[in-house]
Amino acid sequence: MGGGKGPIDHYVTPVKHGRVIVEMGGHCEFEEVRPLLKMVSDRLPFKSAVFSQKMMEEMKEEDEQLEKNNINPYTFKYIVKNNMGGCSNWISPYDRKWFGKHR
What we know:
The chain is mainly α. Helices cover 42% and strands 0% of the residues.
């Protein structure tokens, strides 16, 4: 006979960086739902933040602008991809995937 289903406290759901966990919709303004979303964010067992669509678009534009105006050809992404200075020996797997952007 099988052992059946294990205890529910051992189940997990992986959440990747940059994912939307909770989304509010309908006829409401961001400032109206911000306290509620902040309360939910504080109770999550990992670091999270509250953003509006406008705020996320502004961050994306800022990142694109910084990348466009960068005059240094040796970016962190370029260095990691080309393993300059043997960096693959000492950087973390997160840096290999996100190129130092998310911590």
